[in-house]
Design a protein that fits this description.
There is one protein chain. The protein has 556 residues and is an alpha/beta fold. The protein folds into 3 domains: 219 residues, Rossmann fold, CATH 3.40.50; 152 residues, no CATH class; 36 residues, no CATH class. The chain contains 16 helices and 15 strands. It has a 6-stranded antiparallel beta sheet, covered by helices on one side. A 6-stranded mixed beta sheet has the order 8-12-13-3-14-15. The protein is elongated. It starts with a strand and ends in a 6-residue tail after the last helix.
Length: 556
Amino acid sequence: MLSELRVRDFAVIDEVSVELGAGLNVLTGETGAGKSILVGALSLLLGERASSESVRQGSERGVVEAVFDLEGRESVRERVREGGYDLDDDLLILRREVWREGRNRAWVNGSPAPAGVVGDFGRRLINLHGQHEHQTLLEPAEQRRILDARGDATRQAARVRELHAEREELATERSRRQAELEELRQKQETLGSQLEEIEGTEIQPGEDGELEERARRLENSEELARGASELHRALYGGEGSISDRLSELRPLIRELGRMDPDLEPQAAELEDLFHRTAELGRTLGSYESRVDHDPSELERIRSRLDHLARLRRKYGPELEDVVEMGRKLRRELESLEEGEFELAALDRRLESLHEELRKEAEALSRLRSAAARQLEEEMEDVLPGLGMEGGRFRVALKELEDVGPGGAEGVEFLVSLNPGFDPGPLSRVASGGELSRVMLALKAILAREDRVPTLVFDEIDAGIGGVVAGRVAERLREVAEHHQVLVITHLPQLASQGDRHLHVDKVGEGGRTSVRVTDLLGEDRVREVARLLGGDPDSKTSRDHARELLGKVPTG
């Protein structure tokens, strides 16, 4: 619940701290005293846009801060922890700052936070009813949630929501895969021709280098044969060859070695040189005989190299890149075939999910239809007692073209507060006071199901009085058995029913106007109720009447 609201330098408020308790809290004061300013300050914590014009004149910034006790609110505590904010002693402190220069900042338990996060937490803890934007009962999702709670269909609605999310995720995956396959289909002919071009070439690793060497030999075959022949003759095969000359010198160096043992190594070297020269000459002669003079083979190799060069330019730069491109193209074409099977499997799963979702949504629709009739009857029993004689309430279930996350139908609350007029959307109720009373009627019926702990009613007493005012007060007390309620009122019947009575007035200090909030007790409260009765607060008659009203406050 809301334990404390602190406001500083906001509109005409200098500094105010309002402590609230459980049950019914009433807020009274003269018209223009600043009650609506407090509500406006509170709305900032529900996500309303901050305006620099709301900063008190002469101040640089306005501050609104609220302290909430989250005891028993595990879902909110979990949401706070999921957001990464500290939470000690079950206390949640939301804070907004509005700067005159236009900046605005927000905090959650002392940690900086986006204003949207503060608003999200605030809306989970407070429903504000009146001429304000934060009326969650006007939102289709909230109306749907209320109907499901009334029809014990919350778990069924969650099942539909889960199945719908699963179907949407699967449909997204199918669309993605379909797009990929469509792209592949469009490229299939090109991919096939490219793959045929690469694989048909039957490229061997390092082939281009080997072919270039082979081509050079064929291009220079005549020079290679002529040179090898010349070297063969000079070294070994011709008259007076180097081998012959070395052979002639062998006896001489052997003789010298016998004369001088120091020359024996040289003799061995000359012997080795002779044999190596002879072997080299024979090898070159053999090479000459093997030189290939095949012009057709050279033409074939040149054609092959030209083809490989084109592939490198197209898919390279290196021949290894061309080979890898072939592998990639093969994988893409194979994935097209595999994708067709995957797509068929996805279609079967989607069809199954769609059918399951349809059946679960039909079950949810049946629960909602029964709950809608029940809620209509209960509301039409309550509305007359709140000053809306002839009021009619309807729950419209509008069938959707397809099952959505909320089911197979939209849920909308309709109301007519004037005889002769058809029920219309709840958001179009004529006045803020009537709207608040419709909200109060719903809250009275659905109090146990409603998850938001604190309800704020502004202008709920507009245009009512007498017996109706008493009935409104009774309804508020019923709701306050399950919620913390803060009601801003001018009616003594409502003010006298409060578990806590706060009074707002303006005071002048140092030539400046400020707002003060006082917790009324004892005779101070009697005087205020007497004032609301329209009599003289100092009159014994008025005060006796006030005491009579206050004495009717239920104690149990």
